[in-house]
Amino acid sequence: MTAATKAREETDMHDDLRFIRTPDAPHVYCIVNGRRRFVPYAEWFRDEGLAGIPHIEIIEWAELARIPLGPPCPVTAALRARSMAEVLREPNLMRLYLANLVRGEGIEFGAGRRPLPVPLAASVRYVDAFAYGSDESRSFPGVADFEDFVEVDLVGRIETMEPLGNGSVDFVLASHVIEHTPDPIGALVASHRVLRDAGRLVLVVPDRDRTFDQPREVTPIAHMVLDHEDYRRERDLAHYEEWHSLVMAGPGGAARTDWEIGADLHYHCFTPASFIALVAASMQYARWSGAEFFLPPPDAPPASIEFYAVLRK
User: What is the pLDDT of residue 138?
Assistant: First the structure.
């Protein structure tokens, strides 16, 4: 199947597919599965194999703003004629490649203002530990407003996924999220629980050696196994102290204050090797049928601060 044929089939799946813009702005949105998805450039229709430029409705901004924000429309044309080695060097292309693997119904954890560009045929709901803009989210560091964040559909933690039933989704996406949970093995186990057979867990993970976490020690596997089997919140204080002393360089008492209120941080930090070992350790709790890891080359540009994992149930 060619990319153009696939694009046409995807759009044909949606009887409610609409393209709209406001009178005073040239930006076009695609409305699909009840969310507005940004069309990135004028030639996107042609490049993605759609039959010409569709009819574009003109509506007022107030009406457009009432439609929840979704992921951008995927630019699969950017992947054509590129080798995997080329894609791995560019984080945006790698995210596009991974997102293009999913189909059906799924969820993305912690999408914030940068949801993955899933195919038009994929229906995605957004989950986070709090609703963006709620009182809890106001303490999220570095975020002043949530205007350009996707709307959260479900509130829940990635290590439990309590709002979701067993075998209820075809995919789980999480970009720069698993380091924010005190129980990363729990996140892997919960993902396995909610996925249908052959479903995919797609993870984007920051590389300790390429981020501000570089001064920290890689989290030992034994520590994360203990966090999963016998979680004690008191042990998290050490993560806050390490974070504040080596990354934030803040005042001495800030670590305990942040620990007491449960402020967000990177509880754990990973290298590709340590994360592969973590997935192997998680197999005693949830058996994945397959696992692929995508590692940028050592000479990747500075913007390439992450590596990638795709686990199949």
Answer: 59
Check residue 254 and give its pLDDT: 87
> What confidence tens digit (pLDDT) does each residue in 34-63 have?
899 999 988 898 888 876 667 889 999 899
pLDDT of residue 264: 87
Asked if residues 173 and 202 have their Cβ atoms less than 8 Å apart, the reply is yes
Contact yes or no for 172/195 (Cβ under 8 A): yes
Least confident of 213-217, 244-248, 250-254, 255-259: 250-254
Residue found under tokens 């800030």? 254
